[in-house]
Amino acid sequence: MSVYVSTLLRWSVLQILLVICCMVSDGQAVDVSTALGPIRGFATTMDDGTVLNTFLGVPFAAPPTGNLRFRPPQPHQCWTDVYDATRFGPACLQYPRSATTSVIPYDPSLDDINVSEDCLNLNVYGPQVSGSDPLLPVMLYFHGGAHVAGANKRQDGSLLAQKGVIVVITNYRLGALGFFSTGDSSAPGNYGLLDQLEAMKWVRENIWAFGGSPDRVTIFGESSGAASTSLHLLSPLSRGYFLQAILQSGASTSPWAVLLPEYEPQKYTDELAKQMDCSTQKPPAMSSAAWAPVVDGPGGFLPARPWDLLDQGQFTKVRLMAGCTTDERSGDLANIPGVENGVSRERFIADLADFVERYPRNRDFISDSLLHGYTDYDAINDPITTRDNYVQFLSDYRYVSPLEEVLLGMSAGGVSTYKYSFGYQPIPDRYPAWRGVPHAAELRFLFNMTNRFVDGAPTAADLDMRDTMITMWTNFAKTGDPTPSPIDGVTWQPFTNETRAYLMIDRPLTNGQFLQTRRMELWDNVIRNMAETDTCESGAVASNGNTVSPAVAMVLMSSLLLVVT
């Protein structure tokens, strides 16, 4: 008998003796016994009469302080007294909101959070169960926040749990404390990802005490949380701890997801060291991109670049659901004067010229390719059309194209995949109409975020969409299929490399194929190849980074013509 099975049986006996899961009134204490010790949460009765148990601020690892700072997380010590899990634990130390609002949407729920280095805690939401009930599927969520902000208190998992799943929402170290790296064994980095892995291990060892099955775990996340989830698909260290995954607006191949070796993570460490010696001066601003996952080599969390692992088929082959909102980066244009009336073509061209400076070579060709790919020649001087194309350009670069790359790679590896595009916009909405459906707009339909609706009051249509979203997400957790039976007469068709099927989540739900495929191929076949092509080939001039060999240019121009015709 395996150690794991033996442990599970031993604790199952204790569960029968110690778990108090009788029907109780709102707020009444609910005690469970875990492998670490007894925990006390509370019960809540939902509108439909479902009784949920909630446990807040449950520690899953030792405090990452002192000698454990900048080190992988360690197991938490056991306790004997009942642990009070009736209030949120502290969030991890993070950037001030003023430093991150240009990167992630402003959320007032982060204004009053308590922060601490001792922050490795999680929240558990689940239906009240008895010892004789079958164990329920588990959904483990990683929050977004550009690797520098966020907290598990932002998301209330009760609405998902109401559908018959156990929901776990975890903290993990952020910013320098989560992703500081010297590029060697002194401080290899990726501590935030290892915290997430430690939370998976906690789920494996303890979730049965809350009525969840350790063998039916779906990991999911949004934005940087989705990128983290995607990286767990690639990491050999995470294998065996989850059954399937959901990616919401983030992927391991997103340009911000991993700080690659060529971008010298060490320089950010050096900059931090300099700042620590300047206590009497205002330190220079540091980009949030300085703190991100890194490639830490063989034996580490991420042994190679994400797309190399994808191309080589080195990923955990589990069912995947993934998608984006229709207007991910509309918020990036919010500070352009008069943006509600559109953006001039001249402004788009100028901003595009600034954008391509990030590429070390072939910039003129890349700029021309992008300008053609995101120009509607039937409305070339229409500012509204130009603005909308500008939004799509930014969205495709940061989210949509990288996610398509992951879907294609995993589908080619034989993985069952589902793709969505979230396009539902409430009327009225807290966002101006021109912004469409921006980044993170879907979260209010999965979690109990009434503050993200106008006047805190979702309409009947909003509530209907919320029920649809939660049903599909929990269906996937339960069965691996978001629509085992049709919803509103629609069955979500799987994504394959041949069909590129997707579900448009709007009213009504609609199936489609080949969503902006030509633009996806522009990024994959032209931009990525051009950025990586050595301009010193025969026939090329490597004087200013803006030229390319005739042979390469012919091949890539053929790809470009397929995009713009």
TrEMBL record:
It comes from the Eukaryota. Keywords: Hydrolase, Signal. It holds the Pfam family COesterase. The keyword Iron-sulfur does not apply. InterPro entries: AB_hydrolase_fold (IPR029058), CarbesteraseB (IPR002018), Carboxylesterase_B_AS (IPR019826), Neuroligin/BSAL (IPR051093). Residues 1-29 form the signal peptide. The keyword Hydrolase applies. One of its GO terms (molecular function) is hydrolase activity. Its EC number is 3.1.1.-. Residues 31-282, 288-523 form the Carboxylesterase type B domain. PANTHER family: NEUROLIGIN. Belongs to the type-B carboxylesterase/lipase family. This is Carboxylic ester hydrolase.
